[in-house]
Design a protein that fits this description.
- The chain crosses the membrane at residues 6-24, 31-52, 58-80, 87-104, 116-135, 142-165, 171-192.
- Belongs to the AmiS/UreI family.
- Pfam families: AmiS_UreI.
- The chain has 203 residues and is mainly α.
- The chain has a single domain, classed as Serine Threonine Protein Phosphatase 5, Tetratricopeptide repeat (Alpha Horseshoe).
- The protein contains eight helices and no strands.
- Helix 1 runs antiparallel to helix 7 (140-163) and helix 7 runs antiparallel to helix 8 (171-193).
- It is globular, with a radius of gyration of 16 Å.
- 42% of the residues are buried.
- The model has no long low-confidence stretch (mean pLDDT 94).
Length: 203
């Protein structure tokens, strides 16, 4: 069930990236944020209720709420025309919590690709905090491109690997993912700094 939700996290990140890059209107993106946000709240609730009190299952499901609440917050904010500062500061909380989930996956679960994925999510939500919480408009375009890359590398592709039974928690896959992202984000940073700035949008 969680892997299905992960697929649609990729979808909403893709749409939000297009919004940050000025290709999708904020109110148009709000609907998908609400759909995926609701899914990411219902899914962990079902998993936890049916976990029979198993701590490992509950821990694994608990992190999904971070994203569900983010997308609901974004969707409602876009439709209501609210300030971005609330979701921006909530993003800082998500970024910090994601570090704990990264450590848990690395040292307890031994799922090394998802340890890297949680680190990448921490980086992305830190960018959301800077853009939306602190008003760093100069980072909006870069954040859009990072969001676009992460939609595929941290959500869509892992979700399909899980759904097709081809996912592996190996350290090799984690190293490949980390290497690709370091190169991609470094290149995007150089490109974004040479591109004229635009008005930021919600994440």
């Amino acid at each position: 069930m969680a892997s299905v939700g992960l697929l649609y996290v990729g979808a909403v990140l893709f749409v939000n990236a297009m919004m940050l890059l000025g290709k999708v209107d904020g109110r148009a993106a709000a609907i998908l944020n609400l759909f995926v946000g609701a899914l990411q709240v219902v899914t962990p609730t079902v998993i936890i209720v049916t976990a029979g009190g198993d701590p490992a299952t509950i821990m694994g499901a608990s992190g999904i709420y971070l994203f569900g609440f983010t997308y609901l917050y974004v969707g409602i904010g876009l439709l209501a025309g609210l300030s971005t500062t609330g979701v921006g500061w909530f993003s800082l909380f998500v970024a910090i919590a994601a570090l704990v989930y990264a450590a848990h996956n690395a040292f307890t679960v031994r799922d090394y690709p998802f340890a890297v994925i949680w680190l990448l999510w921490s980086f992305l939500w830190t960018l959301f905090f800077l853009v939306l919480g602190l008003g760093r408009e100069d980072l909006a375009r870069y954040t859009g491109w990072v969001t676009l890359v992460q939609a595929w590398l941290t959500a869509v592709i892992p979700a399909f690997l899980l759904l097709t039974g081809r996912y592996s928690p190996s350290a090799l896959y984690a190293l490949i993912l980390a290497g690709v992202c370091v190169v991609a984000f470094g290149g995007l940073w150089m490109t974004a700094r040479r591109t004229p700035e635009r008005e930021p949008s919600h994440a």
